[in-house]
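## retry 2 of 3
previous attempt timed out at serialization; input unchanged, resubmitting
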Amino acid sequence: MTAPHERHQRRQLHPLPRGLVELYGLIAVLVVLIPEWLADGTLNIGQATAPVETLPMRARAWRILPELRLAAMSLRELRRLAQQQRLGHYASLSRDQLTLHLLKRLRRGEKQRAARLGAGRRNAL
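## retry succeeded, writing output
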């Protein structure tokens, strides 16, 4: 068996010099914290003059494409739209199911509108 003083000497850690610890701290600040501050500042550049809304302005595609419109809606808005579209049992559906049903309904409505517009154009010629 080993003596108690030998066991204590084996487990003793060698302390790092104070200058080396400070150098590691400086490197950590340079590599981690400063890029984080720069990224945060870059993201918040327009925040002082812009309105409170944090989302960018919606492009034309967000207004036209039903998939994007539905993705931007809250569950409450989706249920209100389902009620307007007279979709049955919309209150018990999950968000994904409700979105799928609404997409089918909206696409069907767009096809019917396109068919009506196309028939009207043919008659006008």
